Structure formats: structure tokens, C-alpha cells
Amino acid sequence: MKTYNVNSIGIICNNETGTFIKLKAEFIPALKALDGFSHINVLWWFSDFDKEEYRSVLETEQPYKNAPEKMGIFATRSPIRPNPIALTAVEIIHVDYQNGIIQITYIDANDNTPIIDIKPYTPSLDRVETPVVPGWCSHWPKSLEESGTFAWEQEFNF
User: Fold this and answer.
1) Per-domain residue ranges for the chain?
2) What pLDDT is stored for residue 158 in this prediction?
3) Strand 10-15 versus strand 18-23 pairing type
4) Residue 125: which H helix or E strand, with range?
5) Interval 69-110: pLDDT, tens
6) How far is CA 146 from the centre of its chain?
7) At residue 116, does pLDDT exceed 90?
8) What residues pair up with 25 in beta bridges, in sequence order?
9) What pTM did the predictor assign?
10) CA distance 36 to 120
11) HEC profile for the chain?
12) Which CATH architecture has domain 10-154?
């Protein structure tokens, strides 16, 4: 099996001062021309769940209240995965191009989580007009904006 090297480009700061992406100095030039985009896709590493025993878990017991009794990991957003990679679309509040800081509204990652990559959110490639989901999660919000006020804590079994 081939091994790949993935290097962090920065960290997520998610604490009492706010939610930010802080890039390593050498990656600050990569922010050029990001202005004008309202959202970005952030690829990050589930570093708190990067354990060898987690990488072999392929099924899980009903993580969501209305879900099937057993689910394959690829049908969940679980941090326990063969490769602990996460993807979150986030709204940009402000970009500090000089210091390599992107202030964002929210991300479902812990403070000091490593970032793998950032891509601009573009509707022509990232938006699906009529997505279909299983019945057990069809009542979930239809957009990132609606998710902010949704009672997510009532959806999970953990």
C-alpha cells in the first residue's frame, strides 16, 4: 500500500477570542485573490481521533437517532475514519492578508486542529441543486445558514 505525506498549512483557532484559521507564514501568499469569496471549503485533520485502532473501524452503531441500527463510516460524518480527514464549508468574515488569518463564523473543529487545505466555495462546482438524502435525516436543515439554529444535540446518540 502506498503512503502519502500530508502537511499542515496552519491551524484552526476556535476559542473564546473567536473562530479563525491561522496559516503558517510560508502559506500566506496562497491567500492572494481570495477576496470576493463569501465561503471556503476547509479540509482539516481530525487530529484528536488519529489513532491506529480508529482507522480500522468501518461500521458504527446508530450514531444518529433516526438512522439505521448499523451504518458504514462513509455514510457518517464521524471523526473515526480510515483517514481522519474532515471537510467543512465555512463563511468568511474577514481575511487578514498580512498576518495570514481568516476569521470565520463557525467550524466543527477543536482549537489547534491542523488544516490540510483551503479551497474557495464556488456554486458551479460545490452546490448541488436538488440533493437527495435518506429519510432518517431528511428533516435536517437544507443549508449551512439554517444549520446555525437547528437543534443538532437532539439528533445524535453520543
Assistant:
1) 10-154
2) 82
3) antiparallel
4) helix 123-126
5) 999 999 999 999 999 999 999 999 999 999 999 999 999 999
6) 17
7) yes
8) none
9) 0.93
10) 10
11) CCCCCCCCCEEEEEECCEEEEEECHHHHHHHCCCCCCCEEEEEEECHHHCCCCHHHCCEEECCECCCCCEEEHHHCCCCCCCCCEEEEEEEEEEEECCCCEEEECCCCCCCCEEEEEEEECCHHHHCCCCCCCCHHHCCCCCCHHHHCCCCHHHCECC
12) Beta Barrel (2.40)
Grid coordinates representing 17?
Answer: 477570542
The candidate with the shortest Cα–Cα distance to 19, out of 139, 117, 115, 146, is 115
Residues ≥6 apart with Cβ < 8 Å to 52: none
Q: Tell whether the model's pLDDT for residue 25 goes beyond 90.
A: yes
How high is the pLDDT of residue 148? 87
Query: Which string of DSSP letters, residue by residue, matches 138-155?
Result: TTS-SSHHHHTTS-GGGT
Please give the single-letter amino acid code of residue 54. Y
With a cut of 90, say whether residue 1 has pLDDT above it: no
Q: Which three cell numbers stand for residue 63?
A: 450514531
| CA trace torsion 112, 30, 42, 58 (10° rounding) | -90
CA 90 to chain centre: 8
**DSSP symbol at 123:** H
Overall size of the chain counted in residues: 158
Between CA 154 and CA 5, with CA 42 as vertex, the angle to 5 degrees is: 120
